Amino acid sequence: MRIASRWIGGAVAVALLTQLTACGTLFYPDRRGQIEGKIDPAVAAMDAIGILFYVIPGLIAFAVDFATGAIYLPADQHAQVAPEKLREAIGADGKVDPIRLKSIIARETGHDLPLDNPQLLQRSGNLQQLAAFGLHPAA
């Protein structure tokens, strides 16, 4: 019985160690290989939490993320579209055409968003949100 509890304890320790080590490498594997850039505050905070609970795994997490480059934000990537260009997606009845919107976003940002996903949540905005972007309701 004593050997079985040691094996279980060892397995739990290894599982916790892998969960706390190198958050950026685990969550953002596509960022590996970068050598510089702005540090992602979310990844740095997750690694710092590892230091708060267990010093050695937290330091290992920082070391691995810096060594792999996963702690850095992607270089020169942005996903912004000017509000004026998005007006093309608004129909005469004031509703947004998802097909047009998808094509505009793909053309401007290079990202193909799954706007036809049945699990996509759509919420209506209000006039204050439009005013914050300097837009006026056209419909």
TrEMBL record:
Source domain of life: Bacteria
Record key words, sorted: Membrane, Transmembrane, Transmembrane helix
Transmembrane segments: 7-28, 48-73
Protein name: Polyribonucleotide nucleotidyltransferase
Protein source organism: Metapseudomonas resinovorans
